[in-house]
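Listing 4. Sequential folding, example run.
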Amino acid sequence: MPKLYPEALAFCILWSLLAVWGWASLGVTVGLLLSVGLFLIIMPSSALILSRTSNFGLEKAVRWGILLLAALALLSAADLYA
């Protein structure tokens, strides 16, 4: 069995919870945008950073930063539409 990395597991769980929270607070469209949309943003940016710099620390910081910005945007939108 492959080794589980706690940081990667936490990232995936929080990403899933963010999508579920978006669906619960603003509808299924927002949940899908958070799920698929973040995938379309995070994966290419991670690949670009790793292919150009091979810096895993930078890739991790960018990945978590994108997730944090998405969470802040969702929090703001949920507050506006509540």
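-- end of first protein; second protein begins --
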Amino acid sequence: MSVIFESTIKMVEGSNEDWYIELRDTISQSIEICKDLPEYAKKVEELGALYGGNIDEVRWGKADDVRPHIMDIVRFEMSKLQREIEEEIGKPLIDEEKS
């Protein structure tokens, strides 16, 4: 059984600037709504703990109404969070030799 999470960037209804991430556990079919990346990271960790911390894949997507500048904001925030985590653990999250 593969542990796969689906993460979809969506816009808050009626907004052109406010976004959130819908996080779905494909095994339990549970859905979490995360208003920002720190909350998303926490929820992924919590859900992953249900499977012993072993997450096989995170599939990313976006709703059709998510504008390019929103994606730029999300990418920037993701890289910032990645740097913070790497500094905390003292090593890269992504093994460049395996990529």
